[in-house]
Amino acid sequence: MSDLPVSLLPAIREIAALLARARRVLFITGAGVSADSGLPTYRGLGGLYEHDLTEEGIPIEDALSGEMLRRRPEIPWKYMTQIEENCRNAGPNAAHRLMAKWERELPYVMVLTQNIDGLHRAAGSENVVEIHGDVHRLKCMECDFREQVDSLAGRVMPHCPKCASAMRPEVVLFGEMLPEAELDRLLVALDVGFDLVFSIGTTSVFPYIAQPVIQAVQAGVPTVEINPGRTHLSGYVSHQLPLGAAAALSAIEEARVG
Ligand SMILES: [Zn+2]
């Protein structure tokens, strides 16, 4: 913890104490958690592109939309493949590993992630709500056939072996609904409630990402935001650590077991 600002140490100790006695913990994670694995932080699927328009001369939100997948599937496939290439050689970092460790040690831990890189599961987390899907899961657009792939290399626009229809990565494109089963699991868990809620490496722009934090604040449940920059939630949470995910969680773990 020596390289952390001394001013943060009291907050880190308090968070470690909260975590040590917590029974139900929710970790909400975004691109900032994968940044420590070398992945670019991007807003949703689209902010990976800093330019306003893609090579096709359209906004990335249109290029990566459900509608485009139906009209010109080669365009969203091209950008989904680029996103997947960016995370192809990345592995979980200390932040992913600690959340997985705490899931094994605490009575109940849920990870709600916006990331589509699959790194939480790769680190060993099991109770993960992948609200935007996982780019490594392909599904048939017509039947129930699904397939887990290591990469999309050589798997661009494949056809279903069962019914020969087009397949797609199981990710939520712009204009598409959130996956119902994942959303249901989240709502059931939120209904039971949490006694500690973390928001890590996300600017919380999506309402379904910010809402569990706001709900916790309103219920008097301690909340922790870990993000290098301030967000619209920073003023509401019980603790705000202006740190990267791996550094912050490593310091909390050190204080928890120390
Ligand atoms: Zn099929």
Total of domains: 2
Secondary-structure element pattern, one letter each: HEHHHHHEHEEEEHEHEEH
Global morphology: elongated
Bound molecules: zinc ion
CATH-wise, what's the superfamily of the largest domain? TPP-binding domain
CATH architecture of the largest domain: 3-Layer(aba) Sandwich
Beta-strand content bin: 15-25%
The radius of gyration computed from the alpha-carbon positions, rounded to a whole number of angstroms, is: 19 Å
Mean pLDDT, to the nearest integer, reads: 92
- CATH class assignment of the largest domain: Alpha Beta
Number of helices: 10
Number of DSSP-assigned strands: 9
**Main sheet?**
6 strands, parallel
Widest sheet: strand order?
A: 3-2-1-7-8-9
Cα(first) to Cα(last) distance is 11 Å
Task: Describe, in plain words, how this protein is organized in 3D.
With 258 residues, the chain is of the alpha/beta class. It folds into 2 domains: 6-39 and 91-132 and 177-257, TPP-binding domain (Rossmann fold), CATH 3.40.50; 60-88 and 138-171, SIR2/SIRT2 'Small Domain', CATH 3.30.1600.10. 38% of the residues lie in helices and 17% in strands. It is built from 10 helices and 9 strands. It has helices at residues 9-21, 31-35, 60-63, 66-71, 74-87, 94-105, 119-123, 180-192, 207-218, 245-257; strands at 24-29, 108-113, 128-130, 133-140, 146-148, 167-171, 196-200, 223-226, 239-241. Strands 3-2-1-7-8-9 form a 6-stranded parallel β-sheet, sandwiched between helices. The chain has a 3-stranded antiparallel β-sheet with strand order 5-4-6. Helix 9 links the parallel strand 7 and strand 8. Helix 1 crosses helix 10 (245-257) and helix 6 (94-105) packs parallel to helix 10. Residues 43-47 have low confidence and may be disordered. It binds zinc ion (ZN). The site of zinc ion (ZN) has 8 residues, from loops.
